[in-house]
């Protein structure tokens, strides 16, 4: 299962556009999906945190997956779908349903959130999903959301499972544990950055790509950043990485995806900036700052604002 999946490059975890009265707007989602894939994204992530998956009904989740799958089919691009629950049996049921559709390349699965089952329980959870879910898995390592850290040894154990094809690495730092993983990469196991503000140094250290909410906005720039690092162009990569880190910092100044939606709305790309409770709309000040960064000239040898 492992060897024929190549997850190098940029994956965009799409927002779920809503109307002013908080209904899902599938046409706007289809446009975002097409724009992302036409602007250099390697693939899409449906039902990530950025999609507000936690507050979508089962029917809305199906709509989101259907729309993203159609765009990925049209562009021959891989589709990753988020499956996040602390109920192992329920996760297996969701994975099997997704596997039946035949459109999904892999599932993005966090350590069981909230329960904090410990590392052994977490490994048992992922092993059950790998053995019984019927889909390749990308482990989502995001302890600040799940409450469950994973050591490099645990990630290495998961990397050796044939069904586990990568990790979305969002531990909040690049440290000795990160370098231990990147220094001895496992074949068929992609390291994808998931902390937008530090994606540039993670790529410099050897990451295969990223799943980056910020790329809902400047898709081509994030795709270029990855291409520059993979092509060995350290100087331009460093300069672009610095500009994009400033953008990501302001996009994440308030809970994701409120600021990203406000910027997409201001740029006429979604019908409303609306987010569902418990998320609140972004504050005007942060949105103004984000728009200033998006419009600022990029210092990478050519003039012009981020795209
Ligand atoms: O939805 C995602 O996938 C992402 N979510 C992260 C978060 O909200 O913590 C950020 C990352 O860029 C992608």
TrEMBL record:
SMART domains: DHDPS
Keyword Cytoplasm carried by entry: yes
Metabolic or biological pathway: Amino-acid biosynthesis; L-lysine biosynthesis via DAP pathway; (S)-tetrahydrodipicolinate from L-aspartate: step 3/4
Active site: 140 (proton donor/acceptor), 168 (schiff-base intermediate with substrate)
EC supergroup of this enzyme: lyase
Principal location class: cytoplasm
Any single GO BP term: lysine biosynthetic process via diaminopimelate
Keyword presence, Amino-acid biosynthesis: yes
Amino-acid positions noted as binding pyruvate in the UniProt annotation, renumbered to this chain: 50, 211
A Gene Ontology molecular function term of the record: 4-hydroxy-tetrahydrodipicolinate synthase activity
Keywords: Amino-acid biosynthesis, Cytoplasm, Diaminopimelate biosynthesis, Lyase, Lysine biosynthesis, Schiff base
PROSITE patterns attached to this UniProt entry: DHDPS_2
NCBIfam families documented for this protein: dapA
Recorded family membership: Belongs to the DapA family.
Record-given protein name: 4-hydroxy-tetrahydrodipicolinate synthase
Species, as recorded: Streptomyces ficellus
Gene: dapA
């Amino acid at each position: 299962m492992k060897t024929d999946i190549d997850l190098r490059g940029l994956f965009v975890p799409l927002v779920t556009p809503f109307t002013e009265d908080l209904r899902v707007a599938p046409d706007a989602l289809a446009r975002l999906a097409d724009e992302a894939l036409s602007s250099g994204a390697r693939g899409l992530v449906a039902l990530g945190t950025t999609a507000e998956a936690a507050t979508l009904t089962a029917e809305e989740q199906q709509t989101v997956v259907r729309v993203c799958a159609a765009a990925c089919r049209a562009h021959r691009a891989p589709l990753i779908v988020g499956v996040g629950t602390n109920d192992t049996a329920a996760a297996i049921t969701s994975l099997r349903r997704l596997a039946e559709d035949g459109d999904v390349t892999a599932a993005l699965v966090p350590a069981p959130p909230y329960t904090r089952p410990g590392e052994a329980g977490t490994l048992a959870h992922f092993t059950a999903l790998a053995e019984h879910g019927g889909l390749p898995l990308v482990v989502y390592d995001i302890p600040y959301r799940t409450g469950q850290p994973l050591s490099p040894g645990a990630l290495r154990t998961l990397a050796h499972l044939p069904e586990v094809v990568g990790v979305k690495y969002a531990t909040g730092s690049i440290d000795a544990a990160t370098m231990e993983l990147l220094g001895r990469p496992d074949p068929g196991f992609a390291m994808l950055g998931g902390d937008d503000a530090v994606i540039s140094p993670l790529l410099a250290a050897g990451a295969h790509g990223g799943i980056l909410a910020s790329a809902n906005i400047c898709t081509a720039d994030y795709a270029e950043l990855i291409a520059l690092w993979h092509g060995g162009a350290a100087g331009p990569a460093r300069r672009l990485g610095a500009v994009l880190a400033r953008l990501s910092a302001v996009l994440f100044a308030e809970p994701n995806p409120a600021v990203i939606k406000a910027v997409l709305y201001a740029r006429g790309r979604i019908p409303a900036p609306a987010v569902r409770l418990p998320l609140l709309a972004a504050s005007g000040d942060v949105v103004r700052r984000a728009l200033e960064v998006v419009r600022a000239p990029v210092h990478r040898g050519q003039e012009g604002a981020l795209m």
